[in-house]
Design brief:
By secondary structure, the protein is mostly helical. The chain is built from four helices and three strands, in the order αβββααα. Helix content is about 35%, strand content about 10%. Strand 2 and strand 3 form a beta hairpin. Helix 2 crosses helix 3 and helix 2 crosses helix 4. The longest helix has 14 residues. The termini are far apart.
Amino acid sequence: MRRAFTAAAALALPIALAGAPAVAASHSTSATAVVAGAQTAHKLKHPTTLVAQGPDDICNYTKSRPSLHQGSSGRAVQQAQCYLNEAIGAGLDEDGDFGRLTKSATVDFQQCAGIVVDGLIGAQTWSFLSFWANSPDAPFC
């Protein structure tokens, strides 16, 4: 049986790509939304209601997402190293030093993810790293 989807389904892809859980709601009589990642069904009162839930972040060094490059250091680098370990099994020491190994792992991740390959961790790379690292099927490459 084919179901028609509401505007919530149209929002699911951009939300999922931004690193947040996606929700799709149907027009069936018992409207159900499946929250990606949580694999939990929630009954909805209105088919256009969005339910946002997500897992806790797997890496907890910082919430800060500054632009990082070789030579950067600190908790944000530890966060990125943790994400790289979770997302692609990089095997990095989470020491907070963005050296040649972290740059190499960043390039490997960017190639695998199909995003701009520059060895820098900016907004796009942070978004993909966060999403991939917190996905239940990681590592992907």
